[in-house]
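Narrative of accomplishments. A recurring question from our advisory board has been how the design workflow behaves on a single, concrete structure rather than in aggregate. To address it, we present the structure tokens for one chain from the evaluation set, followed by the sequence designed for it. No filtering or post-editing was applied between the two.
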């Protein structure tokens, strides 16, 4: 199992760069950030762009993978996103993972002046967005006339450093999204069942996750990918355990062990943010980062 972290883009770079370096020094496999225009309780405070943040992070780190959890069509277009990603993959030396999902009804959904899309329309857009982005990152010239997105003789030369393109980590729980993850993803991402977050039990959450994994495996089998490697990523903080996972090394090891046994290959924990839902003791966080997985293997 791998351990990664999320660093929210809430700090001016004079301070933010220290957190990204700290994450690499702690030995995290990857550090991700959220790709939003603003987000939940952080809406009235500082919030910086994901792509510039990751570009800057690429220049102050050397080994750790970097990425988004997650980018969505809410305010992104595949053509412009592909150009940014190819540039970012080059600057980072091939360390970028694109976490990508269908988006939701948060602030991003209406920031460009549009009505919030229905769940059906979000799924329809995502189903067109992901394959087009895949083509844009792998083909020399792309034209596409779709229902939602168009591209006319788009060039993305020289392409990604990672071949055939940078990996996609597709966030999905429904049938259509899982099929997209199976066909285009090198990893699958979930936060668990949102209906269980506030009132469910850890046991119910694990059962729901087991069901999601079973449906993913079925989608992989349907296209003959069941024997190919597929990373299974759990973004923590949104299951009934919430941030209590970071209260102690023992709490983390128990949580990690139970979810490793389900089949997850990567856990992502939030870097501490005081006075927020992600508040945590930094000393405990450091100990989890440096000792947690080693204790899990005992």
């Amino acid at each position: 199992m791998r351990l990664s972290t999320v660093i929210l883009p809430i700090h001016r770079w004079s301070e933010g760069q220290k957190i990204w370096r700290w994450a690499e020094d702690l030995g995290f496999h990857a550090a991700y950030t959220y790709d939003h225009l603003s987000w939940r309780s952080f809406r009235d405070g500082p919030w910086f762009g994901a792509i510039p943040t990751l570009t800057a992070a690429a220049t102050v780190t050397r080994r750790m993978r970097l990425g988004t959890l997650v980018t969505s069509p809410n305010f992104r277009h595949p053509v412009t996103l592909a150009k940014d990603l190819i540039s970012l993959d080059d600057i980072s030396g091939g360390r970028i993972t694109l976490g990508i999902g269908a988006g939701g009804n948060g602030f991003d959904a209406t920031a460009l002046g549009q009505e919030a899309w229905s769940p059906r329309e979000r799924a329809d857009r995502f189903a067109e967005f992901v394959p087009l982005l895949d083509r844009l990152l792998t083909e020399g010239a792309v034209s596409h006339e779709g229902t939602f997105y168009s591209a006319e003789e788009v060039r993305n030369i020289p392409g990604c450093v990672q071949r055939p393109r940078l990996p996609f980590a597709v966030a999905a729980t429904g049938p259509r999204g899982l099929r997209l993850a199976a066909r285009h993803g090198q990893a699958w991402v979930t936060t668990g069942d949102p209906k269980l977050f506030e009132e469910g039990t850890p046991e119910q959450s694990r059962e729901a996750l087991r069901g999601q994994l079973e449906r993913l495996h079925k989608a992989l089998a349907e296209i003959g990918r069941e024997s190919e490697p597929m990373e299974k990523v759990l973004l923590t903080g949104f299951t009934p355990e919430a941030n209590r996972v970071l209260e102690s090394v023992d709490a983390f090891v128990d949580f990690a062990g139970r979810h490793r046994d389900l089949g997850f290959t990567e856990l992502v924990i939030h870097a501490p943010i005081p006075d927020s839902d992600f508040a945590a003791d930094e000393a405990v966080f450091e100990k989890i980062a440096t000792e947690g997985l080693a204790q899990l293997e005992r």
